[in-house]
Amino acid sequence: MKNTLRALAAAAFLALPTMAQAQTGTINASADIATVFTFGASSPLSFGSITPGATATASGSIAFSRNVGVIWTLPDAATTGQLTGPGGTILPTYACGTGVTASTITSAFSSCTPATGTTAVLTVSAPTALVNEFVIFNGSLSAAQTNTVPGSYLGTIRITATQN
Amino acid sequence: MRRLWQRGVLTALLLVWSGTSAVAGAQTVSVSPVQGLSFGLLLPGTPETVTLDDAMRRGVVALAGAGQLDVTFVLPTALLSPEGGSLPVSFSAVSAGLLASAGSAATPVNPQQLLRVQLASDRVLHLVLGGTARPASTQRAGHYSARIVIIVSQPGT
Predict the structure, then answer these.
(1) Burial class, B84, CB count within 10 angstroms (exposed 0-12 / middle 13-18 / buried 19+)
(2) Alpha carbon of A73: minimum distance to chain B alpha carbons (Å)
(3) Which residues pair with B118 in a beta bridge?
(4) CATH class of B29-153
(5) Domain positions in chain A
(6) B134 CB near a chain A CB, below 8 Å?
(7) Which of A83, A137, B3, B34 could form a disulfide with A155 if both were Cys (CB 3.0 to 4.6 A apart)?
């Protein structure tokens, strides 16, 4: 009984400061940063006017901004960047990939003319911040390729970016 | 005789304890979160401010009870992502407000200073909170969050 009394007495006096303590409430603050995944301006790849039998080179690029990972594919596969004109088709030799500037490839695609249009030619994981980069195609024509029927030869380089 | 004395003491203690509870109960306040502060979907490099009259996005806390209260906000300086990213947020001298009743305009108060409010009996007072998020132009995509703590105490305790 004595112990019970002592316990009650202690509880009674301990209760006073406990009830006077501050109370807290918590709410969350939140934000979602949108995904950036967009092509920008392009610079066409133009060989210009070529003397038949001469070699030629040209470079083209398209800007791309992203803050997520990306998988690059070339949907036209083996005919990517093929030119068509009065003398038939010409497939330039390409070097391709991405770079932080429009002039230098820093991450090369595994192929510029892959076997299939769904082949991933470069896979990049999510960056730690927004990335502004360029997809670059550097093309070259051999003397044999330019020694053909005169006229305009045109083609399209199609690039697909899929969020990774 | 001794047992009678012990019973008397026990009864007295119980009376003191229940009396204390009643006094404390009359001054007790409740702090109830109602709505988080949500900046929503932001673009990298584009600051966004949630104003006090933005009912959908402002943070809301309900205070219920009676008497004079001191309110302190513990505010974050940044929202964090699970990947470790940091999104700076700031609060101005008018980022918080008091809503006396639903639908009324908020009276701005400074969330960076101790706020003393008077709660009328059987009334609920809503504290609302806005703020500004400043994502960097290089801000990584994803969800960012932080906790805002509201500490309420009675003056002098």
Answers:
(1) exposed
(2) 23
(3) B68
(4) mainly beta
(5) 37-163
(6) no
(7) A83
